[in-house]
Amino acid sequence: MKKVAPAYLAVLLLACGTSCSKRQITTAEVVAAASSTLPPDPQHPAWNNAPEFSGPLLLQDLVEPRLMTPSTMLIRVRALTNGTDIAFRLQWLDATLDDAPGPGRFADGCAVQLPRSPADEPPAPQMGELGRPVEIIFWRADWQAAVNGRPDSIQSLYPNAAVDHYPFQAPSAEPGSAGQQAMARRYAPAEALGNRRAGPRKSPVEDLVAQGPGTLAPAAETRSDGRGIRSKDGWLVVLRRPLPSDFTPGKRTQVAFAVWQGSHGEAGARKMRTGWAPLLRQAGP
Amino acid sequence: MARVFNWQIGREMSYWYPESRPKRQFAAVFDINKCIACQTCTLACKTTWTSGRGQEYMLWNNVETKPYGFYPLSWDVKLLETLGSGQWRGSVYEGKTIFESAPAGERVLGWKPGSEDYAYPNTGEDDCVGRVDHGLSLSLPHLSWFFYLARICNHCTYPACLASCPRASIYKRQEDGIVLLDQGRCRGYQECVRACPYKKVFYNPMTGTSEKCIACYPKIEQGLQPQCFVNCIGKIRMAGWVSTSSQARPDNPIDYLVHVRKVALPLFPQFGLEPNVYYIPPMHVPMPFLRQMFGPGADHAVGVYRNASRDPDLAALLCLFGSTESAVERWRRDGETVTGTNDKGVAAVRVPVREPVFIRPAFDPKFRVIRTNCP
To answer: Is the Cβ pair B205, A102 closer than 8 Å?
Structure first.
């Protein structure tokens, strides 16, 4: 593992304040350190065994709608692999917690993007290219709140919301019956089509594939998982997925990251993102 | 950006996609003079389409009081202020549309309403402009005035919602020009909510997608008018099909009102969307306000409408409003009777232009009593 001079280390510790962990080895590439465990807890000490990659975030200012004023400036990433899966811990500063959806409200989020195959020449970092897809793990703070147990009701988002009546809660509709559920679905067309953008869920992440801007689509199945926790000044999020095929020890592929700040109105293409960064699978046990 | 022709502003303009007009275009005429803001249309829509979770605040159809009513708050004045003033030279708009004034990085000049902007529909808005002083008498236009503006999605020829969606989740149907939002494809970015100047796309926090008026397309496909039209007790609405100005047919009721008589006008044509709900402007409102809201044709439209009782054809056609559930494709006046035919060419409704009048004398000679008007 690359060593850094003690003086440089001290400066780094001062620069990033108390939210940094004790071990401060920064690398120019993301190094997936071999580890017997991939802890879902972002604060687990095992994460200190991986070197840290600091990536400056850039405006998404290539395709409309663009983000024109910067928000999150830096993402810090550590990666671990157990030989079958790879896990990333993303860390960034965000002064406001945004995890409640609504009109004019946007949720905090982050994503990890990898080329489908670890080729020498990766596709365009901006969501891939036609015929050269990228795979994305997407995490959102409102999904995390749902996983953490926030009730699935309008009152949990707007405590003073008054609702007179939902037709599917009429006394004649037996709760849980097929007829009652069909009636509820009639007023939730996205849900009826299987497009679950909100509501109860088991995981705060979603697997996606893209072949260029505007082509983002759900993967055939979500094989990833994740967990995000709020630190005192931002987010710590662990995202775990199967290792890409052919990504053997000592080999390199590419990885890119994106961050959305809800309070800054960021969603979809309006985001801060990195370009491709090298991702090395560390050789060894 | 492509160059497209917008007949409502009399010129070519920039739009995100090339011109692609549907085979025929769903359209409507609302006669504002007859609206009493009973909100029956609002509830007809609400009970049919938006009674679900996350739709509590949604009003695909709403009726607001102008000039002080808005849903969501300040939807029109906010955009007018951002867009700035623009001049009309005759029927040509020389200012910029919301597509032409899109800032760097945007497809459309828009703004995002906050949750609180939807919190108070119709609260405290029935207020007159101006004072009602002692000795004031009624004249046209009124010195003190307000009016009711019923609004649905305009199913625009150049929808800003459609242009703004980075995922192309919104589409305009070739068969009827109805603008729909694909609920399987939407990811809830709210770009359409930001872009629609009429603010007729609504984000649903319980499904995480945006939703909008669908012009009751299952009814349209059966040759029927939408729910908010057939439930209107003031009979202010008529649904049908509008042509471009060069292809207008006088026997098409919408074409006749929009193109032939020019009595029905688009809402904020200067935004550049070619909206397809047309309004007969209120005749008691000062012209500067109407010109801003409906364009330079407002003076002519008010003049034609005020003369409607002496205008046999116009008076006849206005009688077909709210007279049938069928969409009226063609109309014809025969003397004192007006007929509307449906999409199969069959007479759907026949209405007398003037209702017969019976005068009941106050004195009943048979029973030798004075009648009262109480039942």
So the answer is: yes
* B81-110 tens-digit pLDDT: 999 999 999 999 999 999 999 999 999 999
- Give the residue from A8, A228, A24 showing the smallest Cα distance to A139: A228
Strand blocks (E) in chain A: 26-27, 30-34, 52-56, 58-59, 74-81, 85-93, 109-115, 134-140, 205-210, 217-218, 225-230, 234-242, 252-260, 272-273, 277-281
Contacts of A265 in chain B (CB under 8 A): 112
Regarding whether A58 and A85 lie in a shared domain, the answer is yes
- CA dist A231 and A260 (Å) reads 16
Smallest Cβ distance to A214: which of B52, B113, B166? B166
Bridge partners (DSSP) of residue B364 are B369
Residue A201 C-alpha from the chain's centroid: 16
Residue B29 contacts residue B278 (beta carbons within 8 Å): yes
In a domain, A105, yes or no: yes
Whether B193 and chain A come into contact, CB under 8 Å, resolves to yes
How many Å apart are CA B126 and CA A247, to the nearest integer?
Answer: 68
Contact (CB<8Å) B207/A213: no
B306 vs A232: CA distance, rounded Å = 67
Which residues of chain B make contact with A194, given a CB cutoff of 8 A?
A: 184
B190–A213: do the CB atoms touch at under 8 Å?
no
* Cis? peptide before A122, omega within 30° of 0: no
Same domain, A217 and A276: yes
pLDDT of residue B32: 98
Categorize the per-residue pLDDT at A121 as very low, low, confident or very high, splitting at 50, 70 and 90: confident
Percentage above 70 pLDDT, chain B:
99
DSSP state string for A115-159: ESS--SS---TTT-BTTB-EEEEEEEHHHHHHHTT--SSHHHHST
Altogether, the residues listed in chain B come to a count of 375
Tens digit of each residue's pLDDT (9 = 90 or more) over A168-208: 999 998 999 999 999 999 999 999 999 989 989 999 999 99
Q: What's the domain range around A177?
A: 163-198
- The ipTM of this complex is 0.91
pLDDT at B141 over 90: no
A252, A277: one domain = yes
Q: Which residues of A6-21 are buried (b: 16+ CB within 10 A; e: fewer)?
A: eeeeeebeeebeeeee
A44-69 tens-digit pLDDT = 999 999 999 999 999 999 999 999 99
Looking at A281-285, B61-65, B116-120, which range is the least confident one?
Answer: A281-285
Which residues have C-beta within 8 Å of that of residue A189, sequence separation ≥ 6?
B183, B207, B211
Query: Cβ(B323)–Cβ(B225) under 8 Å?
Result: no
For the record, the structure tokens of B99 come out as 């597509």
pLDDT band for position B124 (cuts 50, 70, 90): confident
Q: Do B51 and A187 touch (CB under 8 A)?
A: yes
Phi, psi for B221 (deg, rounded to 5): -65, -20
pLDDT in tens, B289-333: 999 999 999 999 999 999 999 999 999 999 999 999 999 999 999
Is B352's Cβ below 8 Å from some Cβ in A?
A: no
Full DSSP string of B260-300: IS--SEESSGGGSS--SEEEE--TTS-HHHHHHHH-TTHHH
- What domains can be seen in chain B, in order of their start residue? 2-129+141-248+264-291 (3.30.70.20)
